[in-house]
Structure formats: C-alpha cells, structure tokens
C-alpha cells in the first residue's frame, strides 16, 4: 500500500503522560483506505481501520468524522491541515465561535426556559415557526450573557436591528429580571476561555458536522444506487432505514442538489393515471406550488383524499411538484 498522507498526533493523559498516535490515508490498486494507529511503545501499536473502499469522497467523510472524535478527546496534530479542508476561521469568526463555546459550557437553563416559553407564545401569536422568531443558539446566547440594553443585544450574533425592533423590549424584559455576573462588552470571553477547552469544544462541533455530512453522503449513495438498480422508493427506504415520508423529503433535497430523480418519480407514478397527473399539474399552474393543501383540495377534495389516503395523495403531489418546478425553471431559462 502507498501511504499518501501521514500525520502524528499526541495528547496528555490524566497522569501527565504524553500519548502518541498516527493517522494515515493510503491507496493500493484503486482501493482507498484510512486508519488510526495508537502507539504503545516504539515497536508496538494498535491499528484501527476506518475505511476501505473505492470512493475518495466517501473516505474523506469517514476520515473527517473519526478524526474529529479523536481530536475532541484531546489529540493534537504535529502538522496542521489534517481535515483536508480550509481550516477554521480566525479573527472575528473565531471570536464568535468562542461566544458560542462559552454559552454551551456555562448555560443558564432557568433563563433559557423563560426565553423558549416566550418564543412558543410569540410563534403561536404570529403563526410562525419558532426558529423564525429566534434560533435555539440565539436564545442560548441571550440566556447566558443577559444583555440589559438594545446596544448590548446587538453584540450577540444573530441579533440585528430588525429583530431588535420587533422583539427587543420583550427580550430585555426577561433578561433584566435576572442577575448577571459578567459584563458587556464581551471581549472578556476570548481572554477567559481556556484554549484547550475551546479546541476540544470546537472539534466536538466538527464531529457533529462531519457526522451529518457522512449520513447525507451515505443516504445519497444508497438512493442513487437504488435508482440505478431499479428499486422502488419502498425498497430504497428499507435499505436506508427511512420511512416513506422521510424518503420523499430526501428525494426533494437531492433534486434541489441537482441529482436526477426522474427515473424514480416515473416508477412511483406508474399507477397514477395521466388524467390525475394532468389535474395536479393544472392545479399547480393555477394555484402555485408553494402550498400543497390548496392543490390537494382542488384536485381531490377532502372526501376523496381521505379515501385514497392522505399520505399517498401528498406523496403524489410532491413527486409531481418536482417535475413541475423543473418545467417552470426550464421555461424561465428559455425565456
């Protein structure tokens, strides 16, 4: 095997002893492999094979996820750039990450609960999804740093002037009722946060990110292979461990990513009459494709939709909507 990448890492255990390991990527006859070697002595080590296969992109997803786990445990590389990507942000970007880190390490759950209750009430009153009011991360920042003025609110990432004009007084009504032990401005966070603690937190965030990317890659691969093999949505879902509704969502996401889903759509609609498909298409032309319920009511009506099965009806609507949006985009491009 030809080693194309090798790096040495080390960490100190609780007894202060320095532990060493190596991470590597190799290639032989078109087969890629990646792994980890924990060194016990100069001539003794334990090897862990992370990946062996033909796909470089798949190797990178597995490699990055496994390496982030090791670095979250405290291992640090001799040479930087181990993730084979543009390394993390500096300056303003790192300052923001440290604000997030501190808020995760020193939570104020009592205040956070007050803020999430306020968000639920506000979302219900305005008929919006809660994350449109404020994300969990933003509420966590507010609960920890407890701004007392609109100027202090503006120091938090995610708080702009528009959001402050909408919700600032209500947020401050909550935060000012709680005692705080840290001041504004927040430049003290960078000085206070231990660098090793921050790095371990950062690599845990990377581990979560890489895990999501690996799952997405694996699902994409399973769906593409299933379509190539002529499998139905049901069978692909069984291989991927997803329910039909989750599979439809995955198909929509992959279509937006530019992957051709027409073969699968054609197979899933084979038992849907041309007349029914044209009725759905016409409803989209008249009502638009943003909301499905008006289209469902126009084509089927509540009674027929219930008889057919709402899940099945909405599945057909979503599959035909993919085709419809492609046609609209094609017409717009041609025009």
From TrEMBL:
Domain HRDC, first and last residues per copy: 105-185
Signal peptide from the UniProt entry: none
InterPro entries, sorted: HRDC-like_sf, HRDC_dom, HRDC_dom_sf
GO molecular function: nucleic acid binding; nucleotide binding
Gene3D superfamilies assigned: ATP-dependent DNA helicase RecQ (1.10.10.1390), HRDC domain (1.10.150.80)
Domain of life: Bacteria
SUPFAM superfamilies per the UniProt record, alphabetical: HRDC-like
Record-given protein name: HRDC domain-containing protein
């Amino acid at each position: 095997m030809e080693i194309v990448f090798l790096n040495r890492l080390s960490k100190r255990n609780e007894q202060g002893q320095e532990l060493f390991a190596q991470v590597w990527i190799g290639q032989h006859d078109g087969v890629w492999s990646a792994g980890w070697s924990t060194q016990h002595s100069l001539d003794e080590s334990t090897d862990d094979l992370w990946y062996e296969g033909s796909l470089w992109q798949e190797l990178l997803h597995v490699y990055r996820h496994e390496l982030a786990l090791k670095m979250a445990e405290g291992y640090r590389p001799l040479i930087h750039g181990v993730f084979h990507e543009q390394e993390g942000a500096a300056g303003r970007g790192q300052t923001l990450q440290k604000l997030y880190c501190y808020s995760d390490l020193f939570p104020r759950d009592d205040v956070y609960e007050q803020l999430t209750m306020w968000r639920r009430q506000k979302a219900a009153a305005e008929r919006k999804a809660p994350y449109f009011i404020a994300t969990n991360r933003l509420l966590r920042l507010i609960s920890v740093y407890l701004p007392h003025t609109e100027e202090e609110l503006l120091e938090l990432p995610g708080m702009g002037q528009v959001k402050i004009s909408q919700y600032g007084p209500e947020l401050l009504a909550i935060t000012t009722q709680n005692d705080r032990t840290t001041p504004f401005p927040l430049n003290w966070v960078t000085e206070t946060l231990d660098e090793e603690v921050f790095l371990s937190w950062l690599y845990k965030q990377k581990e979560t990110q890489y895990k999501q990317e690996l799952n997405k890659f694996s699902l994409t691969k399973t769906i593409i292979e299933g379509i190539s093999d002529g499998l139905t949505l049901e069978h692909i879902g069984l291989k991927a461990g997803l329910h039909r509704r989750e599979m439809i969502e995955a198909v929509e996401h992959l279509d937006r990513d530019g992957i051709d889903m027409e073969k699968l759509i054609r197979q899933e609609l084979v038992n849907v009459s041309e007349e029914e498909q044209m009725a759905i298409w016409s409803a989209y032309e008249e009502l638009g494709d943003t909301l499905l319920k008006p289209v469902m009511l126009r084509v089927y009506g509540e009674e027929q939709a219930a008889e057919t099965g709402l899940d099945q009806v909405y599945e057909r609507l979503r599959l035909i909507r993919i085709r419809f949006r492609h046609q609209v985009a094609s017409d717009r491009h041609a025009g």
